[in-house]
Specification:
about 400 residues; mainly alpha; three-stranded antiparallel beta sheet
Length: about 400
């Protein structure tokens, strides 16, 4: 009897780990996102297409497709995807280049490819493929990443993709995210933190010089600035550009301020009634704060913090380096995107188009984020309970 119980305990202790906390947070964010997409877009959708649930229906379709893909990926051993790392990198390049002849333009940006009823944003594909490629590359290089040549090789490999996203799709924020993912993954794999400190200082100094140069140019040659330069000037003084680049930022700040602590109530936003352009996309966090108050805004941020914590738990207990790097890459993608989105909405950084993961309207974004979550769950399934 004792021998049978001991055998049963041994089998129990070696069972696979399933992170239900992570799954619950993702499902909660998806459900909350659908609710906010409908609340934020219903007026605009009814006005323009005569169907208040137009954006909601499209987001539900993308979410269902993403959940099916997540379940499939979660049940496939994550090492299976390692063999597609190089192919994924090349596919990213091809898809971005296809934007030139076949891209669909919306709101002045050419960023989408239409495949039947599905619109695909190659930048989202590139983020996923970059996580997979860099995870495989860092594992293959091994200790070489500790040396200068290997270190800079990992930094430079994503640069062609980032430059193509920036120049071809006019999507600088996604280009920054691709580079940020690479730096974070390298930071976890490489123990030499001095290089990262120097790299951070050099980046900060470069950004400060660019801002200073734009301010000086704007004082004398405002007409010669491109739209990104104008955005930086509007960031520094949005009220001076209230009829132009500063309009969206000011309306977003109005929304946050008018919501107070507890908000006006779900669906009671005024800024979404034509005052805040594309509120269901990049600026959805401001409507959350207006309708649900600072309480709702902080609650959303706490959910993302808990999500990132679960990523860290899985990465720390991953069966191998490849699995840990996959999780770190996904964590970096989501964390950077959340930080940039909230920073833009609160005018902490210049306005740039970046969505709030799982909540903002956007089919490609939610589908590929859910595929990334599937990869994380696959890594989690490889963890044995006795290892925790």
């Amino acid at each position: 009897m004792e021998r049978r119980n001991a055998s049963r305990r041994g089998r129990s202790n070696s069972e696979n780990f399933m992170d239900y906390s992570l799954l619950f947070i993702v499902l909660f964010l998806l459900a909350f996102g659908l609710l906010m997409v409908y609340s934020t877009s219903s007026y605009d959708a009814n006005l323009n297409v005569g169907d208040s649930a137009y954006y909601l229906k499209k987001q539900i379709f993308a979410t269902i497709v993403g959940l099916v893909a997540m379940i499939f990926v979660a049940n496939v051993p994550y090492h299976f995807w390692e063999r597609f790392a190089v192919i994924g990198y090349l596919v990213s390049v091809v898809l971005i280049l296809l934007i030139i002849p076949f891209g669909h333009e919306a709101n002045g940006a050419k960023r989408w490819l239409y495949i039947g009823p599905i619109s695909l944003q190659p930048a989202e594909v590139a983020k996923l493929c970059m996580i997979l490629f860099l995870s495989s590359m860092i594992c293959t290089m091994g200790k070489q990443i500790r040396y200068r040549k290997g270190f800079w090789m990992v930094i430079l490999v994503p640069m062609p993709i980032a430059l193509m996203i920036w120049k071809i799709t006019q999507n600088m924020s996604s280009a920054i995210i691709v580079v940020g993912i690479a730096v974070l993954m390298l930071f976890v794999a490489c123990p030499d933190y001095k290089r990262f400190i120097l790299l951070g200082l050099a980046t900060a100094a470069g950004a400060a010089l660019i801002v200073f140069a734009i301010v000086q140019m704007g004082a004398s040659q405002t007409d010669s600035l491109d739209f990104r330069g104008a955005r930086i000037l509007a960031w520094l003084d949005p009220e001076a550009y209230a009829n132009g680049k500063g309009f969206q930022t000011i309306q977003a700040l109005y929304a946050i301020g008018s919501g107070g602590v507890m908000g006006k109530g779900l669906g009671a936003s005024m800024q979404k009634l034509g005052f805040l352009p594309e509120a269901q996309n990049d600026m959805i966090f401001s409507i959350i704060c207006e309708e649900l108050g600072l309480f709702g805004g902080y609650a959303v941020m706490i959910m993302f913090i808990v999500l990132i914590w679960r990523f860290m738990v899985i990465a720390n207990n991953a069966p191998d380096l490849f699995g840990a790097l996959l999780v770190v890459g996904v964590m970096g993608h989501i964390a950077i995107q959340v930080i940039l989105n909230i920073a833009v909405v609160t005018n902490t950084i210049p306005n740039t188009g970046i969505s709030l993961p799982f909540i903002s309207y956007g089919g490609s974004s939610v589908m590929f984020l859910l595929i990334e979550i599937g990869l994380v769950l696959s890594v989690a399934r490889g963890i044995r309970l006795k290892d925790l």
